Amino acid sequence: MSVYILGIESSCDDTSAAVIKDNVLLSNITANQDVHKAYGGVVPELASRAHQQNIIPVVDLAIKKSGININQLNGIAFTRGPGLLGSLLVGTSFAKGFSLASKIKMIEVNHLQAHVLANFIMEKNAEKNKPEFPFLCLLVSGGHTQIILVEDYLKMTVLGTTLDDAAGEAFDKCAKIIGLPYPGGPHIDKLAKNGNKQAFAFTKPKIKDLDYSFSGLKTGFLYFVRDSVKDNPEFIKNNLEDLCSSIQHTIIEILLDKLKIAAQKTGISEIAIAGGVSANSELKNRLVEMSNENNWQVYIPKFEYTTDNAAMIAITGYFKYLEGIFASQDIAPKARFEI
Fold it and tell me: Is the pTM of this model over 0.85?
């Protein structure tokens, strides 16, 4: 008998709901919050208020678009954390109420684990290659940068993580330094296509083992731009594409250097990426090049499953449902939540 799971994602500024039948996606609806662009970053209070406005219509549309009856749902999966506590509270509270009213099971989901499992989302009438266990996953987002050993759907071990800023945060902060709007990563990626990635050299941090650090790179970029503008007020304008290409190239090299070491240490050649930064064009291109150089099998999720979305919450909920892992009504969200 098929299992139908409703997924709810509200960890940051996107309100999303999805319905999945077994591992096949039936609907995935997301409401974005443009209000934060004026502030150069997500404002937590505004985010939680927008979630309250969006969650009921988003869920309603997701169920309607799925083509199923609400009584067919077996469970509701929701993001417990990590994320903004006010935003998480909205999703968690909705899941509790929906669970009680519909008399279905509640399933808590770790947002980071869900990003990894986005690689297993299937679409109707579509073929897809899925990673074979064990595999390595490079999880890169605005708040997290990790190399994860995935031995099964629900068995994951973090091999390396960022000690300070995440790669996505470094992209956004460097973009702000040169006057690009928030979120900065996509703008840097677009401008970098016409730039020279060798135009400027930035020092890579020397961090032991498989951990990352991006705060020093961000600071070095700030000082370089500041000093260059002192000498030439038109420096950013005249070198914008080269600046974007050079800083993007450096960040991607830092990410992939560690991933290559992890693959060599573990002997694993199944490699996946996940998270919002995995949509970066250079990251994807370099990963494909490295797969040919190192005989890797690479898996890259579709763009809509890399950013925060409920489809990844629903698929994780499905795997936890099969294992009988459910949440109780006294559960509370967690702003910090490790794999």
Answer: yes
